[in-house]
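In this section we walk through a basic example: taking a raw amino acid sequence and producing a predicted 3D structure, encoded as discrete structure tokens. The instruction is simple. Fold the sequence below.
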Amino acid sequence: MEGERGEGPGRPLDPRDWEATRGEQQSEQRPPESSQPEEDVPENILAQTREGEDPYLWHSGRTREHGAEDAVEFIDVRKSFGRNTILNGLNLGLPDGQISMILGPSGTGKSVCIKHMVGLLYPDEGDVLVHGESVPNMADDELFEMRKKFGVLFQDGALFGSMNLLDNVAFPLRQHTDKGEEEILEIVHRRLAEVGLADSGDKMPNELSGGMRKRAGFARALVLDPDIVLFDEPDSGLDPVRTALLCELIQEIHEENGGAYVVITHDIMSARRVAEHISVLWKGRIVESGPAEELFNSDNAFVRQFLSGESQGPLGME
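The resulting token sequence is shown next.
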């Protein structure tokens, strides 16, 4: 990589680099799958684009080999809410057995992706596959069973305020399995111990700190031994130290349990700490995706700007 633009993850972004790249990319013949005529681009996406610029100038759509089967796959997915198009021809694969992160600017559709994975939303066009099975084409009973493959950690932990910590974590087991109470309690105590809350089972959610609520939510996400765990901005509201500790916990538990972990976040330090695979989402499409180390050394000006947090580059205040 020596001598290439974008050398090293800590290299500052030079405005001249991205302006030169912009000129090069505007003059290239772009492949059909990464561009569409301007009149077909939704108005809300055009509104995020500098005047006179191709809305998908920086979207190479490059997908680097990640060496695993896809646990979740989006195929040409389009999703709109009224006149606002959120996903606009999204193609995305998330590898099994790895910690993946979906990164991108606010409002670009990251959380909408999670809702499609578990069948809370359906695409207007395209398909979403979980372990090769089409989610939109599932019957209700198939969808119910498929959702058992998932554990979800919501931004604030999403604990039931009227239940203590033990009953919160036990809830999925009591609702979705025929296990006896003794076995349920054994599983709950084991999961609480894994997240450092072994002695907190009788506490109510309002007695817990923000970090403790997130760890409790993580324990609850794990009790059904899911194949896929989804994290919706797990670092939201945490200070840097507790964010680092939560990242360590995610890594440790993934090493022990395996499976596909999918993390939605804005926090680049979290991505540096735990991501094995990164997908950069912008304007409803993937800019680039692949192994984290390769993304942090990408020569794509948008990817470099976003992953280094620089003010100069393709992303502005549009």
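Looking at the output, two observations stand out. The longest strand covers residues 70-81. The domain at 60-296 is CATH 3.40.50.300 (Rossmann fold). In the next section we compare this with other chains.
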